[in-house]
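User: Run a structure prediction on this.
Assistant: Running it now.
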Amino acid sequence: MNDLLRDTLAERAAATEPPPLDLDGIIAAGNHRAARRRTLGILGGAAATAAVIAGGASVLRPRNEQPQPARPGPFSQRRATFALGNKIHYGPDVISVAPHTVTAFVQTDAGFVFLNADNAIHVVDRSGVRSLGKSAWRLTADVRGNLVAWAEGFNDHEESVVYDVAARRELVRTPIGNKIPKYASIAHGPEIVALDGDTAYFGTLDGLYRWDIRTNRGEFLAKVSPVAVRTVTAGQIVYAQPLDQREPAVNLAIAPTVSATAPARFSGQQAFLSPAAKYLFTELDDALVVIEPGWAGPALYEVATARRIELPYAYDNLFFGQWLDDDRFVAAGKRRFSKTAETDLLVVTAATGAVQVVVPNFAQLTFRTTPPRIAPFAVPTGRPIIDRGE
């Protein structure tokens, strides 16, 4: 390249101006990219947050998932069960309540509730024994669940109580119907007739009340004796018929309501319906009857037909324990020809009356020589086995 050409190119380059700088366009483009990055960041964070929320919701309960059933309690299984001295025998398990002696007890899904020799109420569960600081003559429980109930006495009245063993708190306490008149002679004190699911039945001095445990509200059902209604299970009520019959009041009817027109098709005093009210077992309040009339022995019925099912002849005394299911129940039976009053723990099949001996000779059917004359063992009905004879 000669000097003339070099000079010519340099001159033209110096004369050429650079293109104008579009600052507005550069700023707008930068703002657009920044806004896009922010938008993507926000969307990404929202998506991550949504994923976390969705994940958390899926752990708790998706919309299309049904609630899971409650975990069964540690004692929800019904087994061949009895109490002897200071021990409760729950199938193969032996639960000590020392130094207390069990005179009556019931089973709940959360633990056993028992009365000691002073009628003080205690609970025993996997954590041990605890006192409720209350007392009663008898206890009532359902065929399942965590509730127990009792009638508690005071100077001028009694109160009906429902207690949740699992939650360790009272759900119901009411004096309704149980004001004791001055100088009155009361033939029968108030009782908790039954717990049936979320409903309690109170046999009060004024009559029968049905109580909704969830709302703690009740309704008056009938002007009857505190013991006219014997039990309620699956909505079926077992009661004396006629309602005002005199002692021993052994003619019984079963119906969804207390009615003067339902036929009396069963006999007995204490009554125990199977969980679905398919079978009825009855027995007397008195453990030993010297002169036994035809209606006095224990009896087993099919409810729908009133058919009486024969019980085993090998046992002349039979005491109901509890239903294992709708077809089998536990009972204590004293051997008919035993000179030492040997008593076996039995499982009876309701449909046939067939018997299986599960614990042979677990106790002797003897009674204290001074009142109350109770047996040395108890079964989970909530009341002691008593000889009421003189």
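The first helix runs from residue 3 to 15.
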